[in-house]
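Example record

The entry below shows one chain as it appears in the dataset: sequence first, then structure tokens.
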Amino acid sequence: MIVTRVAVLELAERKTAPDWVKRFPATLSTETPVPRVDARGRAFNEVLSHADGAVILSRAPLPLIESHDRSRVNVGVVDGLRLDGGRLRGDLILGTSARGQELARDIEAGIVRSLSVGYSIDEIDEDEDDDGERTMTATRWTPQEISLVSVPADINAGIGRSSPPTQHPKGIIMPNEVASEVKPSTNAAQVERERVEGSATSAALSAAPEPSSSPRS
């Protein structure tokens, strides 16, 4: 088995983006409930908490990739991460590659506008109301990457969006997003999943070792 570890290039003089590089402000994630189904076929709503201390930004700036495809080099970065009224916001900076500039033009034209966050969960709580509706709330989680996608699961995430989040409709199960059951615990639950409807590959939720202060990869 091949084990990989993330390392960051340390340039002697890290250059800032040139003046002609455009920044695209975006809402990266919100507390919008996203319907999921666990391994037993039971529905639950998943919520990413944006309370103080809930979002760990140790990996900032985040890589900007396409459709959660980590096998390819990122097309840009997401800088200026900040919490703002129950949302995680940031600025998209597209790279100077042909693909990066192509996507920048599509963003400017309003053709590409949706985003999805890939992340790991360190702590999660479960709650069930009187009607039996379950909610899994990630109370401590780490964004790993931001993806440009065609159809996001979080309807309030996207490029140039700054309005308050709207309520996600209840009773909708996202297709092709079957995940294993998450048990509420003080242990960390490692989650690598895609917030995008219709993804060809489901993400897996599984128990992980005790949380540590170091970022996960």
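Notes for this example: The mean pLDDT is 75. The two ends are 16 Å apart (CA to CA).
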